[in-house]
Specification:
- The chain is 26% helix and 24% strand.
- It is an alpha+beta fold.
- It folds into two domains: 135 residues, Quinone Oxidoreductase, Chain A, domain 1, CATH 3.90.180.10; 77 residues, NAD(P)-binding Rossmann-like Domain (Rossmann fold, 3-Layer(aba) Sandwich), CATH 3.40.50.
- The strands form four sheets. A five-stranded antiparallel β-sheet has the order 8-3-4-5-9. A two-stranded antiparallel ribbon has the order 1-2.
- The longest helix is centred in the C-terminal third of the chain and has 14 residues.
- The protein starts with 6 loop residues before the first strand and ends with a helix.
- The site of zinc ion has 5 residues, from loops.
Amino acid sequence: MSISPKTMQAAILTELKQPLVLDEVEIPSELAPGQVLVKLLTTSICGAQLGEIEGAKGADPYLPHLLGHEGVGDVIAIGPGVTVVKASERVVLHWRKGLGIDAKPALYRWNDKPLNAGWVTTFNQYAIVSENRVTPVSSTLDPEIGALFGCAVTSALGVLMNNAKLKLGESVVVFGVGGVGLNVVQGAALTTAHPIIAVDLVDENYHRRGDRRQYSMPDRGKQALHRSKP
Ligand SMILES: [Zn+2]
């Protein structure tokens, strides 16, 4: 089936350590089996993308390419075989594999040349995403909060549940209260860990997290962060 729109604005990484290039990108005219076309509402930026831009892992053989792996959007169209989502449903876009087909990455074009993209990208107005990188959510979910479920929240809970295997009443120290670390604190509070100690070297970051905890941190986590204030 053919799809519209034909083009979109996207932020493209063309060179390491350089600002992203905002430009018009061609969207493939058809969806392959297992692919989903999503109109993005929000995206987060994760440390992984900052690392990609800075070349933290060395040379990048995929340049130029699109970026981003956590966002919220609305499904515009689905490709053959897709069963996890329907058109018009709201979804979280995530990098971890979920349910459904592991489709091939989209073949975008920019300046008449192929533009690389993985199974999910979110620094673009639209995204052709593999079915197993989207999960339907309530249309009432705040898209700014929902985007964090694509990486920060799930990475944090995965660390607690699968790696640390945190149990009721155990204590936790969290080094670095960034996007993932803050959610580790919240997840630990939900598990009634005690005490929860958050450590961050950057005062400025601490104060930013401090504002956020006012409305998002369960009481116990809030108290724990307060106690750890330098
Ligand atoms: Zn991430």
